[in-house]
Design brief:
- The complex is a heterodimer of chains A (398) and B (414).
- Chain A is α/β, with parallel strands linked by helices.
- Among the domains of chain A are: 80 residues, Alpha-helical ferredoxin (Fumarate Reductase Iron-sulfur Protein, Chain B, domain 2); 103 residues, Rossmann fold, CATH 3.40.50.
- Chain A contains 22 helices and eight strands.
- Chain B is α/β, with parallel strands linked by helices.
- Chain B folds into two domains: 254 residues, FAD/NAD(P)-binding domain (3-Layer(bba) Sandwich), CATH 3.50.50; 132 residues, Rossmann fold (3-Layer(aba) Sandwich).
- Chain B has twelve helices and 18 strands.
- The longest helix of chain B is centred in the first third of the chain and has 17 residues.
- Classes of the chains: A alpha/beta (398), B alpha/beta (414).
């Protein structure tokens, strides 16, 4: 049997997942992960039974985190949703939200105009008409993509090479995070390679049921990354949802040759740096910084089983204090919280986190996930930063 | 190199207690969990010992403990560890604002959703049955559409028990939930976390309350480890609430787990969720690192000692297939009757211990695993909780008690 099998009968109906599901807590119409996932799957195996409440699942994976039997509950939901849309019409809104890469490519031609175009009230009204909430601020596009900026960096050459998978959010919205990753790896004597032709990890495609396109992206990415893995290079991510998709969800969803080899070499940037530390190879010439920060662990990190490597790393940096918010899901779940009919649910889910942040009086929150940062900024009114930016600052911003 | 003084495998009551105890001694602790376990959905009361192995009721936990077999985990841990663990737990709860009541010298009888009384030992203040005993007028509250909860059953059952013939009144509170999902105690507890919920509940109850009334209610007075919801309602309604013990999901376990996690966090315990431990690396008779195996790859974490709190058959700590029975991670020997026919007595509810329930890892007085000859197999591994041999928690009513005591002992020994 595969390590992550899909047998719904592994579910003992213990209800742990229902108790820990943030969507179940926020909305009564959702029947909960147990019924939507493994219990529903038993019916779906018998006949084409679809539960409309399945639409409420945000794929945040708290059900998987709480399951004592390692049932991939959220993936069962995503597969069922995709199957449904094979025979049912899907809103254009879902296409827009799951094709951020295409949208961003268009926007990156004229980023200033695109931001102007996306954020003015006429565009928001049009988007609202399509089902995108006008209350959730959309991430702004950067004036120049990470890929373009990366090409201009004059790296210190090294025999140590690392592959960086930037992902859409870093590439199109916050390239500075990617630049920080490169700088930190350079400070640790790694030369960074960013392969051309990598595409969206497909996380937004999977949650909206575009499974064929998701698989095509997965095949393309694995094909590219596999070559580098064969050369012995590690693959670094700085977005926890991209990382999870590349190493776990591809295996749960698709049969792709080479996927396991690639998975075995995917590292979260902080995890990678901690391994260097364990080997005695981390550059620890950190300059002292000041400040008090709160850290939010994305759900898609928590489900990876690697703990909270950024938190462990940040606590090695001199002068700063980092408090773990430990206050649950922020609610955004990729593009879930941008949907008109899900906005209030997403805000209700995140309310405990927002209150925790506000009560702390801390003004800057650290988190690896781009949309988590977006949602936290919106819900708690604070500045948000990727943890790697603090690490780069600890190297004197070189 | 990051070093761990101890890696605790398992995030149930035994694992959390061990992690907190060790961290409280200044040890660097990494806690690895796989799923949230039964603690979060369980009843949250600490049963120490209700019945002897032959099914006879103990006078109290202390006298019962003194007559256990030497193979019982309590006997292995020793009476001093039991006394200390109880004191440690009661102090911890008080400090965290979620006090428990009880002692080894008395049985705490808990009212169940079936209208029976169940013997326990350390229970949340809100489950102390004293107000029911003292009151003449007892309101038994149910909630609209709450699954598996029938106030009439509670009234019928309690009325038959000497000392509980009261003026009972049944009241149903409607939380006004929409949506097609079953209503659970967790839903109601989260509703009562809110001011609107408290107000609506109060309005529906207040006309039934008389001076000195006691109110029997399912465990719904808030989802968090605090008595704030109960205190607010008691103050306004001028009555005493007693929460019953129910089938999972039972809310009290959720509160207890949240409290223990908060304490562990304060003590600097590094918690790793979804860290599926599959094996260890050994050097002679010691474990040097613990290896997780997730979908992507294995990862090794160095440690000076290990506390194994992975549960029994249900939790996955002990695994049986057609021909073998093993401890799942270290492949420690597990003593079990050779013939499968002898694993169970034919009558499931026979009133005596089931052999299969007593299957587990045998240990020495420090809770280190031993072979059939009693020799220690691994010098720096300590076993805590349900994967220990020699007790039938279900019959004895000792599950959380053994987890607490052996978790505490392991946290001291490591």
């Amino acid at each position: 049997m595969k390590k992550h099998h899909e047998n719904p009968d592994s579910c003992t109906t213990c209800t742990s997942c229902v108790v820990h599901c943030p969507v179940t807590q926020a909305v009564r119409e959702f029947r909960g992960p147990k019924l939507a996932g493994p219990a529903g799957e038993r019916f779906r195996l018998l006949e084409d039974e679809y539960d409309a409440a399945l639409q409420y699942c945000s794929n945040c994976k708290n059900c998987d985190i709480s399951c004592p039997s390692q049932v991939p509950i959220s993936t069962l939901n995503m597969k069922a949703r995709a199957k449904y849309y094979k025979t049912h019409k899907q809103p254009f809104r879902d296409w827009i939200l799951s094709h951020g890469e295409q949208m961003a490519k268009m926007a990156s031609l004229t980023p200033g105009l695109a931001n102007l175009g996306m954020n003015n009230f006429i565009s928001r009204a049009v988007l609202k008409g399509l089902g995108v909430s006008d209350k959730a601020p959309l991430p702004e596009y950067a004036s120049e993509t990470f890929s373009k900026q990366f090409k201009r960096i004059k790296q210190k050459p090294s025999a140590n090479k690392a592959i960086f998978y930037p992902g859409c959010f870093v590439n199109y919205n916050q390239p500075e995070v990617g630049l920080d990753v490169v700088a930190v790896l350079q400070a640790n004597d790694f030369e960074v390679i960013v392969p051309e032709d990598l595409v969206c990890c497909s996380s937004p495609l999977v949650v909206n049921g575009y499974m064929d396109e998701a698989e095509a992206n997965a095949r393309k990415n694995i094909g590219i990354l596999e070559k580098y893995v064969q050369m012995g290079y590690p693959i670094i991510t700085a977005c926890t949802s991209c990382g999870l998709m590349l190493k776990q969800e591809y295996q749960e969803l698709f049969e792709i040759e080479g996927v396991e080899q690639v998975a075995s070499r995917i590292y979260d940037i902080a995890e990678f740096l901690l391994e260097l530390y364990d080997e005695g190879n981390l550059n620890t010439n950190f300059v002292k910084q000041n400040g008090k920060f709160m850290y939010h662990a994305p759900c898609h990190l928590r489900v990876q089983g690697i703990g909270k490597p950024s938190l462990e790393l940040l606590r090695m940096l001199p002068g700063i204090e980092v408090i773990d918010a430990d206050a649950g899901c922020c609610g955004i779940s990729g593009n879930y919280g941008f949907k008109e009919d899900k906005y209030d649910i997403a805000m209700a889910i995140g309310s405990n986190l927002f209150e925790t942040i506000k009560a702390s009086g801390i003004k800057t929150v650290l988190s690896e996930c781009g949309t988590c940062r977006q949602q936290i900024g919106h819900g708690a009114g604070v500045k948000t930063v990727h943890p790697i930016s603090l690490v780069r600052a600890a190297y004197g911003n070189k | 190199m990051r070093t761990n003084d101890v890696i605790v495998i398992g995030g149930g009551l035994a694992g959390l207690t061990a992690a907190i105890t060790a961290a409280g001694r200044g040890k660097s602790v990494r806690l690895m969990t796989s799923g949230t376990g039964a603690l979060a959905i369980g009843g949250g009361a600490i049963d120490i010992l209700g019945y002897q192995e032959d099914g006879t009721l103990v006078k109290n936990a202390r006298t019962g403990l003194s007559s256990l077999s030497p193979e019982h985990p309590y006997s292995k841990a020793g009476s001093q560890a039991i006394e200390e663990a109880v004191a440690f737990f009661l102090t911890l709860c008080q400090e965290e604002g979620f006090s428990y009541t009880g002692s080894l010298d008395q049985i705490q009888w808990l009212p169940t959703a079936l209208g029976t009384l169940k013997p326990s030992c350390l229970v949340p203040e809100s489950m102390d049955i004293t107000p029911v005993k003292q009151a003449d007028h007892v309101i038994v509250v149910g909630f609209t559409r709450l699954k598996d909860y029938f106030p009439e059953l509670i009234i019928k059952g309690l009325s038959r028990i000497p000392g509980y013939q009261k003026d009972y009144e049944q009241v149903t509170v409607d939380p006004g939930f929409t949506g097609g999902r079953d209503v659970t105690t967790v839903d109601i507890a989260r509703w009562l976390d809110t001011l609107q919920g408290q107000q609506a509940c109060r309005e529906q109850l207040q006309h039934h309350i008389k001076p000195g009334s006691a109110v029997i209610i399912p465990p719904v007075l808030g989802s968090r480890p605090s008595y704030a919801v109960r205190d607010t309602l008691e103050k306004i309604l001028r009555c005493k609430f007693v929460e019953t013990t129910v089938m999972p999901t039972a809310v009290v376990g959720l509160r207890l787990r949240a409290m223990l996690l908060a304490r562990a966090k304060k003590l600097g315990v590094t918690i790793m969720e979804q860290a599926h431990v599959t094996r260890v690396v050994k050097d002679g008779n010691s474990v040097t690192s613990v290896v997780t195996s997730n979908i992507d790859r294995e990862r090794a974490y160095q440690t000076k000692s290990v506390i194994l709190a992975t549960g029994g058959f249900y939790g996955g700590g002990i695994v049986a297939d057609i021909n073998s029975v093993n401890e799942a991670i270290l492949n420690l020997p597990v003593a079990a009757p050779a013939d499968r026919e002898d694993w169970g007595t034919l009558k499931l509810f026979s009133g005596s211990a089931q052999p299969f329930a007593k299957i587990g890892v045998a240990v020495d007085s420090s809770l280190r695993p031993v072979n059939a000859q009693g020799q220690v197999l691994l010098e720096n591994v300590y076993i805590a909780g349900r994967n220990l041999a020699g007790y039938d928690y279900c019959l004895e009513k000792s599950g959380n008690g053994v987890a607490l005591v052996t978790g505490y002992k392991a946290g001291l020994s490591c």
